[in-house]
Design brief:
The radius of gyration is 33 Å and the shape is elongated. The chain is mainly α and 303 residues long. It folds into two domains: 179 residues, Four Helix Bundle (Hemerythrin (Met), subunit A), CATH 1.20.120; 86 residues, Winged helix-like DNA-binding domain superfamily/Winged helix DNA-binding domain (Arc Repressor Mutant, subunit A, Orthogonal Bundle), CATH 1.10.10.10.
Length: 303
């Protein structure tokens, strides 16, 4: 359930910003509602003639839709001003794509674009971890809270339970596993790795994270060993004939290996003959490198 009472300071508007937001909201609500014919005329003037004055009048008249939508998304703990800005972007996109010849009210068309822009903003900023990437996850993110509250009212108890999760999955046509994962994801908030484990301690959470990557010493040793193995291999290849070297390089030392059949055609021999030459060349390489490398078998198994 989405419950962010402990909103971070970055999501709280300062008094000056709040004042500016209230002024914008009042001005938006004071804009006159357009008659259908005038609305369509403005849209045609913008589409056909690029009349920016018509565009501004059309957009200003429907900023009330942006304010209304922003109010519905406030429970996600994001600044009202940012929600309005994102909604205005959606409103501008709607004005740019609107087709007046379809005889559809602009308000109906714009509402979808405004809502979509705000939803994308909420998903990007509600958490530092991406919350919804698929259609099912987005549907769950924006409907789970409402459906959970409804089920809890019907049951007269807190918590979903298996039956409640199954009901949500069926209603939203998503997998039960998706419901469980989203419920768990929305139950927690972002925590800093620099936060202390306890109020009276100094140890931070990041001090207990295990790093499985090689340490600098192991990296240097690995680079040195790889360079040494490469030199041994080149020296060993020098003991082979030109034809054997080509077979080994084409079959084992390239990103895309060449098939026995293609090599046979290029060398003018049969596929079986290439296999025999390859096996003989590998034995020569092993013999050349014995005494230089511990675990010769492991070296050639990786080739």
């Amino acid at each position: 359930m989405i419950d962010r009472k402990q909103t971070t300071m970055s999501h709280i508007d300062d008094p000056q910003t709040q004042k500016a937001n209230l002024s914008y909201i009042r001005n938006s609500m004071a804009e006159p509602i357009l008659e259908k014919e005038h609305e369509l005329d403005l849209a045609r003037r913008w589409r056909d003639k690029g009349d920016e004055k018509a565009l501004h009048e059309l957009v200003r008249s429907y900023t009330r839709l942006v304010v209304s939508a922003a109010a519905k998304f406030r429970n996600y703990g994001l600044p009202m001003g940012d929600l309005i800005q994102e909604g205005n972007i959606g409103l501008m996109q709607a004005a740019n794509r609107f087709e007046p010849d379809r005889d559809l009210r602009f308000s109906t068309y714009a509402t979808w674009w405004i809502r979509s822009a705000m939803q994308d903003y909420v998903l990007r900023n509600w958490s530092i971890v991406r919350t919804g990437t698929t259609a099912a996850q987005k549907s769950l993110f924006f409907n789970l809270r409402r459906l959970r509250a409804k089920i809890e009212r019907d049951q007269g108890a807190e918590g979903l339970g298996d039956a409640g999760r199954t009901r949500i999955a069926k209603e939203l046509q998503v997998n039960l596993k998706d419901v469980e994962e989203m419920e768990s994801r929305l139950a927690g908030a972002d925590n800093s790795l620099n936060a202390t484990i306890s109020d009276d301690g100094e140890e931070e959470w990041q001090n207990f994270l295990q790093d499985d990557r090689p340490n600098p010493e192991e990296i240097v040793i690995g680079m040195r060993d790889a360079k040494t193995r490469s030199k041994w291999l080149e020296d060993a290849l020098g003991t082979l004939s030109d034809r054997e070297q080509k077979i080994i390089r084409d079959r084992h030392l390239q990103y895309e290996t060449v098939t026995l059949e293609d090599l046979g055609k290029e060398l003018g021999v049969s596929k079986e003959r290439v296999r025999q030459l390859e096996a003989r060349a590998m034995e020569k390489l092993k013999a050349s490198m014995v005494g230089k490398i511990d675990g010769v078998g492991d070296f050639f198994a990786a080739m």
